[in-house]
Design goal:
0% of the residues lie in helices and 50% in strands. It has strands at residues 3-4, 10-11, 25-32, 36-43, 47-56, 65-68, 76-84, 87-91, 105-109, 115-117, 120-126, 135-147, 151-153. The strands form three sheets. Strands 5, 6, 7, 8, 9, 12 and 13 form a seven-stranded antiparallel β-sheet that branches. A four-stranded antiparallel β-sheet has the order 3-4-11-10, with no helix packed on it. A two-stranded antiparallel ribbon has the order 1-2. Strand 3 (25-32) and strand 4 form a beta hairpin. The chain is globular.
């Protein structure tokens, strides 16, 4: 089966992998060393945007992007950094007069290409810039959006 992309090129890959647990993203993992954080997940559906949202330390009072999570006592998780496909960002948004956060991110690395093995995507991020806020290096939310079923995955990842 061929599906045409906006570019006119055909997509001939498998559109959906069998989902043994009924969810389109699974096997989320984080590995942290003194110099790098490695984030990986299996994306079992095609997504236009594969995101790893790296959470901020709860003691950090800098503004961050909120991701709704009913299991968190405050109702959301707070992301200071984001990987979206092959780009790495820091949150730079502001609050408007109604208290809503803006979707605003500054590019830190324009070429953070994941290593892809079948359905597993793996990103390696250097942890050497001490001038940035202190995210919880091992705490992430993985998100898939576009084409496949919109999905947030809140793993229990530890550094």
């Amino acid at each position: 089966m061929a599906i045409r992309r906006a570019s006119g090129k055909a997509y001939r890959g498998r559109l959906r992998q069998r989902q043994p647990h009924g969810i389109p993203i699974e096997n989320v993992r984080t590995t942290v060393s003194a110099t790098n954080a490695v984030y990986s997940a299996e994306f079992l559906e095609p997504f236009a945007f594969r995101r790893v949202l790296i959470l901020q330390d709860p003691t950090d009072t800098s503004l961050c992007w909120g991701i709704t999570n009913p299991k968190n006592p405050r109702g959301y998780e707070c992301a200071a950094y984001m990987i979206e496909n092959n780009r790495y960002f820091a949150y730079t948004g502001t609050l408007d007069s109604s208290g809503n956060r803006s979707w605003s991110w500054r590019v830190l690395d324009d070429n953070l290409a994941p290593v892809v093995n079948k359905y597993t995507y793996q990103w390696t991020v250097p942890l050497t810039d001490a001038s940035k806020p202190k995210p919880l290096r091992g705490k992430i939310v993985v998100q898939g959006q576009g084409y496949g079923t919109y999905q947030n995955v809140f793993p229990v990842a530890t550094p």
